[in-house]
């Protein structure tokens, strides 16, 4: 009986281990070949399995990946949620289990509708179904497109596909490579290994293609990293010490074109500190500089906004309190900035009443921020992970992608490093440098190829000075977005469905 139980469990156990190892392909480890090896082994484990058994194998793979890959989420729940340890672990288990449903769905769909060992299963159905399940995870319940496999490839030749089709095209390339390898191993038809070789060779070749061109004009930035303790940030007695700390750090950097404070750097509603902001605006104007900061705003009724404010040399005459002229965060973080089913959940635990957990969403597309004549497309913290939203807000006048963040919620974990990796992918996709200002790291600047050119150490107070070239031109992904991949997916599935009853070992 024990032998029989082990026989049934070895595939899910192996899948969980392989899923967990996938985390090492992402930052900070960056062992990118693991992102290809992991789905190879998963597809081998799914071979000749029933749809039900496949579902559990895929679910186990997802448990392994997300239990390790987003373990940092538990820090915010445990440290700031005010819940007993057992309750925070239970909530984390629910989150990981929910995310594991998507690889489970992938495995079930693949073996339910395309069970035969065939080329159309491996080269059409398997890669496209993976992409579809990724899209679903990035859309349902506002979406959580974290740990898409494509993000792991920033240091591999496959990264060069990003300007063509974004992180999704890289993910598709990974899955086609993985499918070719697993198909070759199952059929012993080793000529199919030419496919990943061609894909990687194409990636090498694309490195020589320059979709955008750096401009001669240089912008001097000063990014202020305040390193404010998250536990103290919203304590009323710490309001002015925090504001004055950012002001003091900025005073010696008025020679910069643009000074940037991080997300919600000002721990107060904008209307409460409008006199201070007017003085700061005058100081910036007197020095022919601009200052950008995150701030919280209150609208009519119970509307609250996570906003970005620009002072000094802007397209406005002088500072005026008018929240209609601010950038307001559109894509809010579930539970952190809004609570789904709040009438049911808020009474259950203090975690569901974290500070500022009742924000209102801004528009999907908003005007670029203009600071000293430069146009910046903002993405507040969590928003940077939504590639289509960032693409929609980058226009022909955009010089830089601006992202303000506060990852202090996640302590000394891998979460902020993964967050930075995602921001780097946005730069590569859209051919625009990313300017990233955070409370305690990673505060950094990338070039238009997504490579970090300047950064501050984490968990230190400091100022990052950087001179950055903006770019002209447009990447194909900026122009087309994901529509070519959507059309390809429909066509590929249609062909695979038509041939699903055939076998071609």
Automatic annotation (TrEMBL):
One GO BP annotation of this record: lipoprotein biosynthetic process
Domain CN hydrolase, chain residue ranges per copy: 224-470
Subcellular localization: Cell membrane
Transmembrane segments: 31-48, 55-75, 87-110, 122-141, 161-181, 193-212
MF annotations from Gene Ontology: N-acyltransferase activity
GO cellular component: plasma membrane
Listed name of the protein: Apolipoprotein N-acyltransferase
Organism: Vibrio xiamenensis
Chain's gene name: lnt
């Amino acid at each position: 009986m024990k032998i029989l139980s082990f026989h049934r469990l070895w595939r899910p156990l192996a899948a969980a281990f392989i899923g967990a190892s996938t985390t090492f392909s992402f930052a900070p480890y960056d062992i990118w070949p693991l992102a290809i090896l992991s789905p190879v082994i998963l597809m081998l484990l799914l071979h000749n399995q029933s749809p039900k058994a496949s579902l559990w194998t895929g679910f186990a793979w997802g448990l392994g990946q997300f239990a390790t890959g987003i373990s940092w989420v538990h820090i915010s729940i445990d440290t700031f949620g005010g819940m007993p340890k057992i309750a925070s672990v239970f909530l984390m288990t629910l989150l990981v289990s929910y995310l594991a449903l998507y690889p489970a769905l992938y495995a079930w769909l693949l073996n339910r509708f395309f069970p035969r060992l065939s080329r159309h299963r491996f080269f059409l159905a398997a890669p496209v179904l993976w992409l579809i399940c990724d899209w679903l995870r990035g859309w349902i319940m506002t979406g959580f497109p974290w740990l898409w496999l494509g993000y792991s490839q920033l240091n591999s030749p496959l990264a060069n596909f990003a300007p063509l089709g974004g992180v999704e095209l890289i993910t598709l390339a990974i899955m086609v490579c993985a499918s070719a390898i697993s198909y070759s191993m199952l059929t012993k038809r080793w000529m199919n290994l030419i496919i990943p070789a061609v894909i990687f060779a194409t990636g090498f070749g694309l490195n020589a293609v320059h979709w955008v061109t750096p401009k001669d004009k240089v912008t001097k930035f000063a990014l202020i990293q305040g390193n404010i303790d998250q536990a103290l940030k919203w304590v009323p007695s710490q309001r002015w010490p925090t504001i004055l700390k950012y002001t003091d750090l900025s005073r010696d950097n008025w020679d910069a074109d643009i000074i940037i404070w991080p997300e919600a750097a000002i721990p107060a509603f904008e209307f409460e500190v409008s006199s201070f902001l007017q003085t700061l605006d005058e100081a910036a104007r007197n020095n022919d500089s601009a200052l950008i900061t995150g701030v919280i705003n209150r609208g009519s009724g119970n509307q609250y906004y996570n906003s970005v404010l620009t002072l000094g040399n802007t397209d406005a005459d002088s500072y005026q309190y008018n929240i209609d002229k601010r950038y307001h965060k559109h894509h809010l973080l579930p539970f952190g900035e809004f609570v789904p089913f709040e009438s049911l959940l808020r009474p259950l635990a203090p975690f569901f009443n974290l500070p500022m957990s009742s924000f209102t969403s801004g528009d999907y597309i908003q005007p670029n921020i203009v600071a000293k004549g430069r146009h910046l497309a903002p993405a507040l913290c969590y928003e940077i992970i939504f590639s289509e939203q960032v693409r929609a807000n980058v226009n022909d006048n955009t010089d830089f992608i601006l992202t303000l963040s506060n990852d202090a919620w996640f302590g000394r974990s891998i979460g902020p490093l993964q967050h930075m990796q995602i921001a780097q992918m946005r730069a590569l996709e859209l051919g625009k440098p990313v300017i990233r200002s955070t409370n305690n790291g990673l505060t950094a600047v990338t070039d238009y190829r997504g490579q970090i050119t300047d950064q501050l150490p984490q968990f230190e107070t400091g100022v990052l000075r950087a001179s950055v070239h903006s770019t002209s031109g447009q990447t194909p992904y900026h122009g087309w977005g994901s529509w070519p991949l959507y059309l390809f997916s429909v066509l590929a599935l249609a062909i695979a469905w038509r041939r699903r009853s055939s076998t071609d070992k």
